[in-house]
Amino acid sequence: MSFRFIHAADLHIDSPLQGLGRIDPAMMQRVQLATRTAFENVVDLAIREEAAFVLIAGDLFDGQWQDMRTGQWTIAQFRRLETHGIRVFYIRGNHDAESKLQKSIRWPDNVSELSAKKAETVKLDDLKAAIHGRGFARPDVLEDLAAGYPAALPGYFNVGMLHTSLQGYDEHDPYAPTTIDTLRTKGYDYWALGHIHLREAAPLCEDPYVAYSGNTQGRHIREQGAKGCLVATVSDGHLEEVRFEPTDVLRWNELEIVVPSTADAQQLDEQIRDALATAHEQNDGRFTIARVRLSGSCELHAELNDPLKQGSWIGRVRDAAAAISDELCIEKVKIRTTAQRGPRTRGEADLLGELSREAELLRQDPETLAALSPELKSLFEKLSAAQADLSDQRETNERLEEWLAAAEEIVLTGLEGAS
Ligand SMILES: [Mn+2]
Hints:
It is built from twelve helices and 14 strands. It has helices at 25-32, 34-48, 69-83, 180-184, 265-282, 301-305, 307-324, 342-347, 351-363, 366-371, 373-383, 397-418; strands at residues 2-8, 53-57, 87-91, 111-113, 120-124, 129-133, 157-163, 190-194, 209-212, 228-235, 238-246, 250-258, 287-297, 328-338.
């Protein structure tokens, strides 16, 4: 006997999309419905694949509903599955924990919400499948929920559903942390995880199969690329195949454009246009929101960073996108080019050389760099206010390095101009 199931998580239905940049108001509505449309795509996929059931491993909702329509709309989608005899198993995550959202919701009969008090098991005798799971009662679950899951039911295909920050994903909220070793002790066949939005090309473990599905729709520039869910096929009690299916309707891409050292304005225009067109094409007709990041040591550096001309360069990038498609827009343009000085300056004995070497030392000393973080951040915000991403306040290493590079560049350019 064989059957199929869908593993989805982190749908964040009705979560507002962030950082859309300038967007046509007529387009806005469609864009803001992206998380709903992605869920419709999950439902369509389950029907098309004749799935036996759909697993939702937490964060179905983004948080408390703005009004009842979010819940009513979702229930209508579950009813579509019901008419096809498809069951749904749902656990709460940190975003839709019982303390955050209506504690009890009247779901259609095909939907089973697993308990948030203790691990619960649903046996599907017709499929010889057992589904184990436990939801979040509160968002800040810091204990290892998996440790309390029951052992596998012999003779059944055992699936564990868990919303967790698995060891190794340290940058995420550390909720219900656990390890692959703990999951392995349960003897299950498949662990359907939720919480981490990133899509991994390979499972975290093959046997048992442990994977995050990632979220169904990217919601800002830090959630780039294809998003969707997993379709698993079970044959005679064994996992036969798992494949990813995209469900997103809109994609975020960061395009790094290295400006060639001798490129002129027209060549750069062409390069930007090509990069945008390629990204849009690769998204198979989906609405595309791109961040364009210009880097490289180049002759155009002075012009690109001239405060009087920078606005018009950003406008050129937006115009290039608009000329390609009205379903392509620019989230932000980041200009991170450097003047053509490079290693020559670094080796010199003067002040410029010394500054360059100091910056290089800092780059290799994350602790001192982190200690300088407030100064670097305020310098960065003062000097490149037009580009500073004030919505993104995280002090990751990547951002520290970016601030340092900007500070270095500004100081060096200033000193060069003065000499
Ligand atoms: Mn989560």
